[in-house]
Design a protein that fits this description.
The protein is built from 5 helices and 12 strands. The protein has about 190 residues and is α/β, with parallel strands linked by helices. Helix 2 crosses helix 5.
């Protein structure tokens, strides 16, 4: 089975807490080694693929490659996911607080109709871009464990995976993660 099919098959639950198991729609997701939070030290980080896709709100396509040298927070979401509804307020707040310190947020919408997803981000006043990824190609390129929505991935300035939250994330823990990764010495300094 290809990576896109694996990502599409795995993204079936909607994570609501710190459980290692999330159920939904008759499917079950068990997180890697029973963990819903993964942290990688600088020497253990892996590169991601070419994550790009259609900008949900129009305009040019979104490519993580356009944010070289920035810490990037990738949030995988869907309009049908109740924790995503709450989480968007917190994500937007942390984005506004950190964007001037070399941080970019990018959403990846998964398994939504285009119009529903567009309404979802417009109604919530989300100011950062989201990739429309119904089929999971962007998720496959991300190359990190993704099994439920919401999932949040924090990439360092070299766009290597530093932290993964396989559940809803709180404002405080997101802010702490972003500030910690942004404080790491950038390459070439």
């Amino acid at each position: 089975m290809g990576a896109v099919a694996v990502a599409a098959t795995a993204l079936t639950g909607c994570a609501t807490g710190d459980d290692a198991v999330a159920t939904g729609n008759g499917n079950q997701f068990v997180s890697p080694d029973g963990k819903t939070y993964l942290e990688y030290g600088p020497g253990d980080r892996k590169d991601i693929g070419d994550v790009r896709g259609e900008n949900l709100l129009g305009g040019e396509d979104v490519s993580l490659g356009d944010y070289r040298g920035k810490v990037v927070v990738v949030n995988i979401w869907a309009s049908w996911c109740p924790p995503c509804r709450k989480e968007f307020r917190e994500l937007e707040k942390v984005y506004q607080e950190t964007k001037d310190s070399g941080v970019q947020f990018v959403g990846i919408d998964f398994r939504d109709s285009r119009s529903t997803a567009q309404d979802f981000v417009r109604d919530r006043g989300v100011s950062y871009p989201s990739i429309y990824d119904y089929g999971g190609a962007s998720l496959a390129a991300l190359g990190t464990p993704v099994g439920v929505v919401p999932t949040t991935v924090v990439l360092d300035r070299e766009h290597r995976v530093a932290r993964v939250y396989l559940r809803a994330i709180t404002e405080d823990e997101l802010r702490d993660a972003v500030v910690a990764v942004a404080a790491e010495e950038a390459p070439g300094r």
